[in-house]
Structure formats: C-alpha cells, structure tokens
Design brief:
With about 210 residues, the protein is mainly beta. The chain has one domain: Trefoil (Acidic Fibroblast Growth Factor, subunit A) (Trefoil), CATH 2.80.10. It is built from no helices and 15 strands. Strands 1, 2, 3, 6, 7, 10, 11, 14 and 15 form a nine-stranded antiparallel beta sheet that branches. The chain has a two-stranded antiparallel ribbon with strand order 4-5. The two termini are about 15 Å apart.
Length: about 210
C-alpha cells in the first residue's frame, strides 16, 4: 500500500508495505526500470532525488542520513529527524548489483555524496560502524541484500551477514548506524518514503517492488 503525504507543493509517498511481499530476482534479472545497472566502473553516478528514498527506522521513526551533508569518505551514517523536503543527505538510491542465491544484492548510495553505505574496515564484528565510502562492486562490505520481516525490511551485509541497525536501539538524533546480529529487532527494521512528481502524482517505487 502506498499512502500519499503532501506538504505544500511537495508530495511524498510512504511505503507502508510491499504488496505481495518480496520475491526472488530472476536468475538473469536486468536492472529494474529506473534503476541504474551495475557498471564496470566502481564510481557511482550521482543519484537523483526523484529516484531516491528516505530510509525510516521502525523503532525511532528517524531517517538514515549522512550528517552535515558530508562528502567525505569515512563519514559515519547516523539517524536524524526526517525532513521530507529534498534533504538529499537523508536520501538513498538502491542500485541493483547482482543476484545471490535467492536474494537481489544492492548498493545503498547517498543521494548527496554519491558514496555507498559501507561497514567500516570490512569488519564482521557486532557494533562495527556504518560509514559512507566510494562504491565498489568487488567490496562485499558495501553490498547489501534485503529480507522482509513483519511488513518491514532488514538489510543484511553481504560480507558479515549482519543487519543494518541503530546502535543501542536509540531513538535519539545522531545515533550511529552499525551492524549487529539479526534478531527481528525494531531498530533493524526499515521502511521507505519516496518523493513524488507533484504534477503527475507519480511516485518512484523501490527496485524490488513487484519482483
């Protein structure tokens, strides 16, 4: 179900649930319409806001962001009060990379910096910080796949198998995002808000929608 929320001339769509659940990507899946295919170059093209999404944590109702609009490699990713008004440091583009077993694998790219969510130091430890870093198809610590849990999504890191998580189950602004053992915790559950084209009411859907 998609619910439209309008603030002035801006419309956003709250992705409350994914109709029909998640399906596996076909074995020879091309990138879905509107989603950049994985290119040979490691450099990521700068995403556009209307192709991007806010990632909203279930427990805190806050958005994943790169603080201060940083474009520095290694800047920590945290959570902050969502501002649904083209705050591109809070917007993320899901770039389809490949199929792995029954899962589709993505890079999560910040719309402002064009850098990828990455587990710092390729760590496999609980509590390792999530940072932004130049995107690489060959670096498993910047690749993520999703599972659906209770109408939300969890993002698992390909290298560690651990989940994208708000540290300490915090509800506070500036709490870091980390990886942690997956356990169906609310602080590892995510939903999405997309900008809509006000003139047509057309809203971007996540690339896995309808697969």
């Amino acid at each position: 179900m998609v619910k439209l929320l309008r603030t002035g001339a801006l419309a956003v769509a709250l992705m409350l649930s994914i109709a029909g659940g998640l399906a596996a990507a076909p074995a020879n899946a091309a990138a879905p319409a509107g989603v950049a295919a994985a290119a040979g170059s490691a450099a990521a093209a700068k995403p556009q806001p209307l192709d991007s999404f806010y990632m909203v944590n279930q427990r805190s109702s806050r958005c994943a962001e790169v603080p201060g609009y940083s474009t520095r490699a290694g800047a920590h990713v945290d959570q902050f009060t969502c501002v649904y008004d083209y705050h591109t440091n809070q917007m993320w583009f899901f770039k389809y990379i490949k199929r792995m077993s029954k899962h589709a694998v993505y890079q999560i790219i910040n719309t402002h910096s064009a850098l990828c969510m990455n587990v710092n130091g390729a760590s496999k430890s609980n509590g390792a910080a999530v940072v932004q870093w130049p995107c690489s198809r060959s670096a498993a610590n910047n690749l993520w796949y999703i599972d659906e849990v209770s109408g939300y999504h969890v993002w698992r890191n390909q290298r560690s198998g651990k989940c994208l998580n708000v540290a300490g189950a915090s509800k506070k602004n500036r709490a870091w995002l980390v990886q942690y053992n997956c356990g169906n915790y609310k602080n590892e559950h995510w939903k999405y808000v997309s900008l809509c084209r006000s003139s047509t009411g057309t809203c971007t859907r996540p690339p896995w929608y309808g697969w």
